[in-house]
Write a structure and sequence with these properties.
By secondary structure, this protein is mainly alpha-helical. The protein has helices at 11-28, 50-70, 80-103, 117-134, 137-157, 174-182, 200-218, 223-245, 257-280, 288-295, 297-313, 321-331, 336-360. Helix 2 crosses helix 7 (200-218), helix 5 runs antiparallel to helix 7 and helix 8 packs antiparallel against helix 9. The radius of gyration is 21 Å and the shape is globular.
């Protein structure tokens, strides 16, 4: 049996984190928004694309990372107050960076959006890290299941105020109504926000599933047993999410209960496969870019938004750089969607340069 103290760092998790950030950049920064392959767009409402997997994968990784970072400190006397302070400070910093990115490029304080990817990461990390320090894995699982059931019941059986009946349509559902009443600032879709108040609760569960995976990885099982359990849990979760989705559709915008189970299942399958290949078989060739991106994941995410001011917003001869590139390739006969994807991949490579320099100099920027 393998002791939980033997695992210090998972290269597979670092690689998964890094490749997830790279995928975020690809889907967030196509060469031309008008020409994007369907799977590289978010679903408009119900359904699931590759793009819809990116955000839940990152929250799942946050959950695994919480366990790896704080497990050894749980038994230390008097350390919790210091951990609480660090958790709160880190959450505030991530949220503040999210606000900074939301204000780019005009810094218009009269039209602020108080939600977004980093905002949700900050809130989920804060809640789940504190939860981890005060509960065991069984309690975490019960809390997660309870949230998913209550969320499903609320959206499926509580009539939307002002409409008088249960509606689950864009901008016309209980979650949208709550945001319209209580969410400050601008909403992403005008009268609703995919990172709104109610949908944040099931996103906690996405992180909790990562925490449960982290507990499994640190458990007293052989490496092969850990892989088997991760893969089995992934298959079971994905199947459960599919069947739940028949009544409460898979929907990233609402972060539905079925969406949580399906995406967490896929994340467990991927982590299990990477853990087997990278950490057990030690076949690490090809994972280096992911590890490099993953070493400064949030820094790279922020950098991409800043570099976008040059590559996607600044005017060069009447066009932005991305439109110059995609228009030129399209005129040369390349399919527009492929040209758009190529530019997104080039932008990923551009962001890789500073990530590589930071990694080579062993500079790890932790918010």
């Amino acid at each position: 049996m393998e002791s939980s103290t033997q695992i210090t760092r998972l290269i597979s998790l670092d690689a998964m984190r890094g490749f997830t950030i790279a995928a975020m950049i690809v889907v967030n920064f196509p060469g031309n928004e008008e020409f994007v392959y369907a799977t590289l767009r978010h679903t408009k409402w119900n359904g699931l694309t590759f793009t819809d997997l990116v955000a839940p994968f990152f929250l799942y990784i946050v959950g695994v990372s919480i366990v790896l970072a704080y497990s050894k400190k749980l038994g230390m006397a008097g350390i919790k107050p210091g951990l609480y302070q660090k958790i709160v400070v880190r959450s505030v910093k991530i949220f503040a960076v999210g606000m900074f990115l939301n204000m780019l490029p005009s810094f218009d304080f009269t039209d602020l959006r108080y939600t977004g990817t980093l905002h949700r990461i900050a809130i989920v990390f804060l809640v789940c890290a504190i939860l981890f320090l005060n509960t065991n894995w069984k309690q975490q699982a019960i809390i997660g299941i309870t949230i998913l059931v209550l969320y499903s019941l609320a959206l499926n059986y509580i009539p939307t105020p002002g409409i008088g009946e249960v509606v689950i349509e864009p901008g016309k559902n209980l979650a949208a109504w709550v945001d319209q009443q209580y969410l400050p600032g601008k909403m992403w879709q005008g009268n609703w926000d995919p990172e709104g108040i109610l949908s944040t609760f099931p996103s906690f569960v996405t992180c909790i599933t990562g925490m449960l995976a982290g507990r499994l990885i640190l458990g007293n099982f052989t490496p092969n047993e850990k892989v088997n359990y991760l893969m089995t849990a992934g298959l079971f979760s994905s199947a459960a999410g599919y069947f739940w989705g028949l009544g409460f559709p898979v929907n990233e915008n609402l972060w539905t209960s079925s969406f949580v189970l399906v995406t967490s299942g896929f994340a467990s399958l991927l982590l299990g496969a990477l853990y087997f290949v990278v950490d057990i078989l030690k076949r690490q060739k090809g994972t280096e870019p992911g590890v490099i991106f993953g070493a400064n994941a949030i820094t790279v995410y922020v950098l991409a938004d800043i570099l976008a001011l040059i590559f996607y917003i600044s005017d060069f001869g009447g066009k932005t750089l991305n439109h110059h590139f995609t228009d030129s390739l399209s005129q040369a006969g390349l399919e527009p969607k492929l040209a758009s994807l190529l530019y997104a991949l080039i932008f990923v490579c551009i962001n890789f340069i500073p990530a590589y320099l930071l990694y080579r100099r062993k500079i790890f920027i932790k918010l």
